[in-house]
Amino acid sequence: MKAVFIAYNQALTEAVSSILDRHHIRGFTKWENVQGRGTHSGEPHFGTHTWPAMNSAILAVIEAQQVEPLLESLKKLDERAEQQGLRAFVWNIEGMI
After folding, report:
1. Which residue has the higher pLDDT, 43 or 13?
2. CATH class held by domain 2-92
3. CA atoms of 38 and 96, how far apart (whole Å)
4. What is the DSSP string of 76-89?
5. What is the reported pTM?
6. Measuring CA to CA, how many Å separate 80 from each of 25, 75, 86, 88, 95?
7. What is the residue extent of each domain of the chain?
8. What would the mean pLDDT of 73-78 be, rounded to a whole number?
9. What value does the mean pLDDT of the chain take?
């Protein structure tokens, strides 16, 4: 099993949800109103008067074979909307109940 953490501008919520549905990823945990800024470029998403945008984040634990197709779809979305901001990170799950 793998964990995929996806952080994205809230403007991309419908598109990210659609990608999860298309890849049959039903189970996840979602956080709204997440603040952050990109490592290299992009504007901060702080929910303030100066930086009003906000992010959301999703954590999904999925089968290993689902990871690459999901990342490919997320990368295509990010390339279509680079200014919005989207990042995904993957790590191993060593145990679960």
Report:
1. 13
2. alpha beta
3. 30
4. HHHHHTTTT-EEEE
5. 0.93
6. 22, 9, 11, 15, 36
7. 2-92
8. 97
9. 94
